[in-house]
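Re-run with default settings, no changes from the original entry. Doing this only to confirm the output is reproducible before filing.
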Amino acid sequence: MLDGKPALNLGFTEWDERERVAANREKFMAAIDARKMPLAALRQFHSDVIHVAAAPCAEAPKADALITSTPGLLLGVQNADCVPILLADTRRRVVAAIHAGWRGTLARIAVKTLGRMTMEFGTRPRDVFAALGPAIGRCCYEVGPEVAQAFAAQFPRAADWFDGPFEQLAHGEEPLWLPWLTMMPPGHLLPPPRVQLDLRASNRWQLIDAGVPEKQISVSDLCTACRTDLLFSYRREGTKTGRLMAAIGIK
């Protein structure tokens, strides 16, 4: 619990005591009936790097997705706005945990993880179940023209995932920053327009496009920035917020 919030901080951060976070993780493992399962975690850095794990590493690997076919090993990813994605191939008995911010989403980390599962273990997308956990929603996730342009260049469906003047930002001219910085009141220009991005919708579409049946994808509607009474949000609360964890394993 942090400042009266019911969620436990599960991330090792500079401002929280390591012993307290370790105790929180023990409570979390007990709550999901995984007390005897070793936890494999990552040093996440908003990438499309994928690590295949057979056992926990002495030092957490630098990556943003984990895959295993080893029974008894728990995979965990942390988030405080980004999308946690869990994949389970129920036929080949392979699971994955993914951390997808806008950079990872743009780089198709969920689809690349699915492809790695296919390459390493013979996974077929039609056998995969996916769960997308609480993350910042399109209601709260404002991004600038560089993100709109990047998504427009990569995805034909990108406009469906944005609210606001997407076409203007994605395909129009860059905002003129210099006049806005130098003009004096009352002659200020309006701040440059921004759009709101739905990360979960983008990842959901990518999984469907890769062959995962739509009916086998579950998406949480909880927004981390709206529900800071319950969840952690880096965008809303700043650097001293906690970290959530999504975990998956094979019993």
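The CA atoms of residues 109 and 174 lie 28 Å apart. The chain is about 25% helix and 20% strand.
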